[in-house]
Amino acid sequence: MKQKELAQGTVIEKQQLNSVTKKITIYAPDIAAKARAGQFIILKVQPDSERIPLTLSSWSKKHGTITNIFQEVGYSTKELGNLEVGDKIMNVAGPLGNPSEIAKYGTVAVVCGGLGTAVAYPVAKALKEAGNKVVSIMGARNKDLFILEEEMTAVSDEVYFSSDDGSKGQKGFVSDILKSLIAKNYNFNMVFAIGPPIMMSVIADITRPYGIKTIASLNPIMVDGMGMCGACRVTIGNDVKFACVDGPEFDAHQVNFKELIQRLKSYFAEEKHVTLVVQQQGRTCQCHGR
Amino acid sequence: MSRSLNGSCKPQNRLAAVKVPKQEPSSRIKNFKEVVLGYNEEQALAEASRCLNCPNSPCVGGCPVGVEIPGFIKLVKEKKFDEAIAKIKEKNSLPAICGRVCPQEEQCQRNCVMGRKGDAVSIGQLERFVADLERGKGFQVSTVPSNGKKVAVVGAGPAGLTVAADLAKIGYKVTVFEALHTGGGVLVYGIPEFRLPKQIVQAEIDYIKKLGVEFRPDALIGRLFTVNELFSKGYEAVFIGTGAGLPKFLSVPGENLNGVYSANEFLIRVNLMKSYSFPLHKTPLSVGKNVAVIGGGNVAFDSARCALRLGAENVYIIYRRSRQEMPAREEEIRNAEEEGIKFKFLAAPTRFVSDEQGHVKGMQYVTMKLTEPDASGRSKPVPIEGSETLLDVDTIIVAIGRTPNPIIQGTTPGLKTQTGGIIVVNKETGQTSLEAVYAGGDIATGEATVISAMGSAKMAAKCIHEYLSKREKVKTCVALR
Predict the structure, then answer these.
(1) Maximum distance among all alpha carbons in chain B?
(2) Which residues, 6+ apart, have CB-to-CB distance to B27 below 8 Å?
(3) Which of A170, B102, B227, B409 has its CB 3.0 to 4.6 Å from that of B98, i.e. a possible disulfide?
């Protein structure tokens, strides 16, 4: 019962998964009770921090915790990564977005790249629980950058690996493996593609001619994450949709990936600027004096 | 007509209002501090003395919440400032905010008898004066014994705050569920600091907390808890005040280019996330040299004036009708003009042009002409063929209106909505199609003003109280009829 006294947002556990990836478990019992595969949360570490959207990787209703896996790519994710067990994240809002549509489809390929595996894991798990044959295809740049291998293996009927440098699994990309499995007459009823937009775009191109229904989980820039700002707007077929309230999962064959990739570059200059400024002020910075 | 100057109010031409001090345009465009500085005591007394205390009080009829205006102004004249604010607060829980952002010129001041021959009494400035005075001294809170009944308020904007305050004052245990990390709704994410300092909103929220209201931020109702689940948590009535928070877009080619914002995104970054102090606050915003803001309402003007303060060299308001039809407040249009905002009237965008990097570099628009006014008295803009013009801009802000947030409607079975997702309510009670579920503000009326949201919220609060006083404990929300 000790955890009942904890404040929402308290960091319960923190783990370095590899050189660039961290896992953080946060006390948020109401979110944990409601979370479903495919949904995300928005975190705001301190009063002056950005709101950052992170897809839920796992959660425990029993312990009242949620777990996110992230890479420290910019100032705000570094700020999150600097938190220690016992620190409190000021704001945690969620679960946000629509859950993945889980049903018994038959044979389903879960194709994930890099950090996308963190998002793919609960989807694969839910698909398995729904009685599907789950074929997971995991990719990373090299063998050290794979995450959740054991977890993915546990919820998959078959698992394939690919790495850019060939240090684990097949040398090449996840798309190569998917292509060869399709050629081997794996009759996929459904494909979930979760990873960098360029990867999801390639997967969509592979499955399109076969008419295999393919779902992509999109990761555009968001501010509020609840339908207000429209920063996360994406073009799906002829319509503009908001990833936060209409998604984040969409029919990959309808997604305008070129536009998504373009829009993700909106704040490159500012992102560099804030990191630089904070580095310069680093010695006198008051905010991380813990 | 000789107008009195800042700080000196005597001798005064009774027909002219005491001018309210403002920051000079040349300095205010370089900061986010409040533009209007407000009356001092001497100025307030001089302005209050202009009120004729008309027996039929036409001004009160123009106020959506029916503040007894001549009554409070009389108390100002008598220097009974504490009593004056108490008089306002009988009807309006948020006077410091309404004194600043209400369109008084279209409401109370429009009906002012003084306005027939000269300037209307500056009712809004007087309201602000006594509200600021009270806040400076610290709010006096008198709590009442709890009646043991719990009410959930969804959304901490003007409507939700009003319902929370009104019900807490008569003994209800109110919890306000707010989806964002801070309360205030449009008052914090939409209206800029230079029109409504955020510390004023925070002070009002702190006051409402002192009344015993609990705030639960980061709680998006519909996702974290459904409306039905709120009843199972022991709330006996639910008020939905989730506002009109979804931005509309134009649907012209190029609208998803980098550098094109909805006004909501732009203002959320600036106001809520405080991008104007980037990198101190970590949310970035890139504003170019030439900015086009599309629309003619208050949101367009707020966006334009923020862009100017963030360093844009040329900021254009692009509006498809003419100046007379612009829905923004006259005062804000004048403030914008003084600050150097440029206007392109009778202009409708047709295409946003991209540079090689996928960033906007221009806006093509057509010139419009207005038709003869139709039955409703409104002229329709129609494009003039062959009038396409290209304007060099590197930032575009689309401010053409907002629609209701759909999350609650989509997760509450039986909750009736009309076109555009507006929640259907009984106009006399604020009750929705579900028993014990009420709604008010923009979610029930479509996009309107802060004060009209408060008006509908006050009515709903009153009806929630009547309903709960009569009814036994509500266990679930049942569809009516």
Answers:
(1) 70
(2) none
(3) B102
Residues 6 or more apart whose Cβ sits within 8 Å of residue A3 = A27, A63, A64
Calculate how close chain B gets to A125, using CA atoms only, in Å.
22
Q: In this structure, which amino acid lies at residue B164?
A: A
Distance from CA of A247 to the nearest CA of B (A): 13
Could you tell me which residues come within 8 angstroms of residue B190 by beta carbon, excluding any fewer than 6 positions away? B264, B267, B268, B271, B299, B302
Burial (CB < 10 A; 0-12, 13-18, 19+), residue B481, is: exposed
Q: How far apart are CA B172 and CA B466, in angstroms?
A: 12
Rounded to an integer, what distance in angstroms lies between the CA atom of residue B249 and that of residue B269?
Answer: 18
Answer yes or no: are the C-beta atoms of A215 and A192 closer than 8 Å. Answer: yes
Q: Which candidate from A30, A263, A270 shows the least CB-CB separation from B286?
A: A270
Reference B81, options B43, B140, B129, B17; nearest CA is B129
Closest residue, chain B, to A234 (C-alpha): B256
Q: Distance from A230 to chain B by nearest Cα, in Å?
A: 6
Q: Is the dihedral of CA B434, B435, B440, B445 positive or negative?
A: positive
Angstrom distance (rounded) from CA A97 to CA B294 = 29
DSSP SS3 for A30: helix
Query: Which site among B282, B395, B411 would you substitute to test the A interface, given the most A Cβ atoms closer than 10 Å to its Cβ?
Result: B282
Interface ipTM above 0.85: yes
- State phi, psi for B120 to the nearest 5 degrees: -65, 155
Q: A51 — contact with chain B (CB < 8 Å)?
A: yes
pLDDT at A266: 81
Query: Which burial class, exposed, middle or buried, applies to A40 when counting CB atoms under 10 A from its CB (0-12, 13-18, 19+)?
Result: buried
Burial A239-277 (b: 16+ CB within 10 A, else e): ebbbbbbbbbbbebbbbbbebbebbbebbeebbeebbee
CB nearest to A223's CB, from B259, B265, B405: B265
- Tokens representing A107? 């044979």
**Three-state SS annotation for B436-463:** CEEECCHHHHCCCCHHHHHHHHHHHHHH
Pairs from B102-105 (Cβ < 8 Å, separation ≥ 24):
B102/B449, B102/B450, B102/B451, B103/B329, B103/B449, B103/B451, B105/B329, B105/B330, B105/B331
In chain B, which residues have their Cβ closer than 8 Å to the Cβ of A277? 279
**Contact at 8 Å (CB) between B37 and B21?**
yes
Tell if the CB–CB gap between B249 and A271 is shorter than 8 Å.
Answer: no
pLDDT (tens digit per residue) in A20-44? 899 999 999 999 999 999 999 999 9
Q: Which residue has the tokens 């705050």?
A: B161
Q: Do B284 and A231 touch (CB under 8 A)?
A: no
Distances (CA, A) of B76 to B64, B122, B134, B211: 22, 13, 13, 26
A249-264 pLDDT, tens per residue? 999 999 999 999 999 8
Which H/E stretch holds residue B469? helix B450-470
Q: Under DSSP, is residue B410 helix (H, G, I), strand (E, B) or coil?
A: helix
Q: What is the pLDDT of residues B203-260, one digit of tens each?
A: 999 999 999 999 999 999 999 999 999 999 999 999 999 999 899 999 999 999 999 9
Give the length of chain B.
Answer: 481
CB contact under 8 A, A267 and B218: no
The C-alpha R_g of chain B, in whole angstroms, comes to: 23
